[in-house]
Amino acid sequence: MYEPNVVGDWHEYDEHAGLRVRVHRLELAEPPRGRDDAAEGLTYFSLRVTVENRGSRHYGIHLEDGQVDVRIGSDGESAFIDWRNSQFIEGFDVYPLRRATAVLYAAGPEASLSHVDVQVQLRVEEEWTDRRLWAGGIGVHEGVVGAQPGAARESLAHQVSVFLQDQAEEGTA
């Protein structure tokens, strides 16, 4: 059993040296070409799936509809994915030190968006990778999901943020 990733974390594939993927930038966002009629009454959000090649050879990758599953709420109900507005990675060669990013637009009831699970199954050189899961939510900072209560307050990111705010306040007084 593997541990799910937190939105913002990178996952490296052992079977494809140097290739890694992450789900990030989970945020409220309206789709660029307008809302789909089927999403009436739902709240739109977007997320990005980035594939990065840190290896020494190029990989042909595919990340198309059906390879990303988005579940929302504590019951894990399927989110509405707006395929018309989403941008996928369809047969792209990712060379060393390069990235390719898919942008997905989805929608769901606003009350369910504090819990978003994204499952990705990448296809590399016509070979399917194992499915991997990222957990996050709208309004939850990347890297804090799954932390113990109060742990976010003690995180390094929070400490840096407080320090910078204190410094800015001292400089303006």
Give the helix level as a range of percent.
10-25%
Average pLDDT across residues? 87
Q: What general outline do the C-alpha atoms trace?
A: globular
Order of strands, widest sheet? 1-14-11-6-7
Structural class: mainly beta
Beta content:
35-45%
Unreliable parts? 143-154
**Structure annotation, total helices:** 2
Q: Output the helix-strand order.
A: EEEEEEEEEEEEEEHH
How far is the N terminus from the C terminus? 53 Å
Largest sheet: 5 strands, mixed
Q: Tell me the radius of gyration.
A: 18 Å
For this entry, what is the oligomeric state of its chains? single chain
Number of strands: 14
List keywords for this structure.
173 residues, mainly beta, 5-stranded mixed β-sheet, 5-stranded antiparallel β-sheet, 2 helices, 14 strands, DUF4352 domain-containing protein
Describe the structure.
With 173 residues, this protein is mainly beta. The chain starts with a strand and ends with a helix. Strands 1-14-11-6-7 form a five-stranded mixed beta sheet, with no helix packed on it. The chain has a five-stranded antiparallel beta sheet with strand order 2-3-4-10-8, with no helix packed on it. A four-stranded antiparallel beta sheet has the order 9-5-12-13, with no helix packed on it. Strand 6 (68-72) and strand 7 form a beta hairpin. Mean pLDDT is 87; it is low at 143-154. It has helices at residues 151-154, 156-172; strands spanning 5-6, 10-12, 19-28, 43-53, 59-63, 68-72, 77-78, 80-81, 89-94, 98-108, 116-120, 123-124, 127-128, 132-136.
